[in-house]
Amino acid sequence: MIRNVVIGVLVAAVAGTGFWGYQEHKEKNAILINAENTYQRAFHDLSYQVDILQDKIGNTLAMNSRTSLSPALTDVWRITSEAQNDVGQLPLTLLPFNKTEEFLSDIGDFSYRTAVRDLEKEPLNDQEYARLESLYGQAGEIQKELRKVQYLVIKNNLRWMDVEMALASGKENADNTIIDGFETVEKTVSGYSEAQTGDPTHTSTKQENKNFQNLKGEVISKQEAIQKAKKYAKMTEPIEVKVVENGKGAKYGFYSISLVETKTNNEVDMDLTKIGGYPVWYINNRDIQNSKLDLNQASNKAVQFLKENDFESLDLFESAQYDHVGLFNFVTLQDGIRIYPDSVKIKIALDDGSVLGFSADDFFQSHKKRDIPQATLSAEEAKTKINQNVQIMEERKALIVNDLDQEVLCYEFLGTINQDTYRIFINANSGREEKVEKLKNSEPVYENIL
Amino acid sequence: MKGISSKWKGVIATGLAVCCLAFSDIHASAFTSQVIQKGAVGDDVIELQARLQNIGYYHGKIDGVYGWGTYWALRNFQQSFGLPIDGLAGFTTKKKLADASNFNAKFVHTQIQKGNEFTYYGGVDIAKQIKPNTNKKNTKTTGKTSTNTKQATKGNQKTNTASNLPAGYSQNDIQLLANAVYGEARGEPYIGQVAVAAVILNRIDSPSFPNTISGVIFEPGAFTAVADGQIWLSPNERAKEAVIDAINGWDPSGNAEYYFNPATATSKWIWTRPQIKQIGKHIFCH
Fold this sequence. Notes:
Chain A: This is Spore germination protein. The complex is a heterodimer of chains A (about 450) and B (about 290). Chain A is α+β, with helices and mostly antiparallel strands and about 450 residues long. Chain A contains eleven helices and twelve strands. Chain A has three domains: about 1-205, no CATH class; about 220-365, no CATH class; about 380-440, Nuclear Transport Factor 2, Chain: A (Roll). Chain B is mostly helical. Chain B has two domains: about 1-105, Orthogonal Bundle (Muramoyl-pentapeptide Carboxypeptidase, domain 1); about 165-285, Orthogonal Bundle (Arc Repressor Mutant, subunit A), CATH 1.10.10. At the A-B interface, helix 2, helix 3, helix 5, strand 3 and helix 8 of A face helix 3, helix 6, helix 8, helix 11 and strand 4 of B.
């Protein structure tokens, strides 16, 4: 009798475990499938977008009427961005897939630039037309390769989860149709990229501008760099110093210097350029417990620091307080014109007014003496280009980098519509509305609303 | 306009010594000595907003953050009262404002602490200007946390300059970034954390990566913390500070788009990227 009961209990236990295991298995599968589906969706979406992209570029080539060309190019731009999004969702980061993404970005930039232009006044020139044709051809090649991969994926029921496993286990060389397929796509594209760089209308990616080519001065030694760093840090000896030179892949030469004040254990880190020893950035991350200075006093400290360190003619244009730190953003002022690309940011501690941080990355990349052309429009004329509903409160001249990566002289207007404030830039020569941005109101803390 | 204002300053300055004691008694709750500048936060800003609203210049929320709405209100006030129009609440401006308006500090601070929606217009019964916050239960702690977090987030929004940021960042964006930074680099030195945040931001700018914060962070295989779920650990304040520094333009990575830990990296490909520098355990590269 007891034996039967024991057997019964055991049978029930085994059955229960089995059932539980089955449930677990089912759940795991469900999640795997879910993940797999996301990848599949992104992949098929990508190849669909590239299909459409190719068609649309083809359409623009055939278009004659300018009024239809602008919307079509805008559409190309939109689809490019969708395709880029899809690429981003695929587990390809460990594959060298950059060229394809850059190609998509190229099409995007080109179509955007041409679409926003008034094609009635400035139609596509021969060079641009030729570029459009070559982009069309390349899109066709990519489309062909992608379709091939897609076909194999569907036919052999290939799974992206396997690709991820293969990549994660480091067996890139293993035979994997999807990986091989994408490598072919990549090769196809990189075959074109060489030819493209010679094209004058080729938009450089932002990275290529970041070489600090405007810096002046002699190359400084490690010792000189340490001296300069100590001057910025204003620490008392003994100081523990560490200096490292930039890695081989850096786009410009710099020293990374770390200073630790032995007495207080405060640490200051900074990068100084090898040419001239200019500070690219500087961070002192000590704790600040209380505020003794107000934001206005702190801004004076920031101005003083800039003067001491030979940053000339800078104009404070934004300030903000975070707990016990004041953050200030300065831009160059040349002949009363704000040069927005030249920006320097400074953090001041509100307890003793010392400099906590400094960032002049943007400044050193773009700062130079500029020949700013005269404005052909008057401020009054520029004002007429602005939406009637905006009540203009402030105006000045400013130099900005527009959407097409060009420096343009503008009239800057600050204006309001009801409770919102807008910053509007009107090109001082063409009257084009270069940039309109709604300046943020303070955002409520959701924790308190919900 | 300027001539009048400097004259005013002179009058005030000479009268200052005499009047100081008398005034401090009458305006017990009046401003501290600070010159209130755009971007400031705190009790003085609350008083500034409440007073400007009391005499009908400010129509926004009284939240203790000196933003654009407050700025225009103050400038309009300065214009009407013949003061120099600079958006700075210095001694003269504060005094003029204090004389022209009422400020019931207890009422205003109580409403803020309770999280109520309220206004403070003059000539209307203040009790009728409250819309109680019915959702909030733990009212005791809100006052404190609200000012703290507001200070942190306020700064982020203000970093949106005309030149360097593609778009504004919301609190949620910063939270997501802080999660990623904490998951990826919580054992790293502070500048290492700023650098990781900067890499994420550099990727958003780069043509080779998605154009959104979530796109970059959740790109499969891009970050180990995302793959193994460490991204969902609660980040500490330091990670958030690092993110805010990076958004404000600090980039210790030297414009890197990749980084890896040489001790644990499995991919051979990552070693082929041009290396910029090493911070802590991470090597940063283009």
